[in-house]
Design brief:
InterPro entries: HMA_dom (IPR006121), HMA_dom_sf (IPR036163). This protein is of the alpha+beta class and 113 residues long. It has 4 helices and 3 strands; from the N terminus they run αβαββαα.
């Protein structure tokens, strides 16, 4: 009996290890991105679209929310947030460097947390 349970357990673990999580080709995400104006909007959206797999990126000035549609087989939300941070805008998980932030136009200087 113990051998049957052991064989069943090994078989189950083997099948579950082979099963891969299916990636969504049109995954929707919303995240907060710091910024102030139309210049920020253009920069944020351009940085997002620069990441392979991003299908849609729309940043709302008043809410500071970035709505994304991306292919999870090609990228992740973290990749997009890192690209945005490199362009000069803080996100919840990726912060821009002070040097890049200082290079932003005056109208784009947001209050950093």
């Amino acid at each position: 009996m113990r051998n049957l349970i052991l064989i069943a357990l090994i078989t189950f673990l083997g099948f579950s290890a082979q099963a891969q999580e299916k990636k969504n080709k049109n995954a929707k995400y919303e995240t907060e991105v710091s910024g102030n104006c139309e210049h920020c909007k253009k920069r944020i959206e351009k940085a997002a679209f620069g990441v392979s797999g991003v299908k849609s990126a729309v940043w709302d000035i008043s809410s500071h929310k970035l709505n994304l549609i991306l292919n999870e087989e090609k990228t992740s939300p973290a990749d997009v947030k890192n690209a945005i941070a490199k362009s000069g805008h803080d996100t919840d998980i990726a912060k821009t460097t002070q040097e890049v932030y200082d290079g932003l136009p005056m109208c784009c200087k947001y209050e950093r947390k």
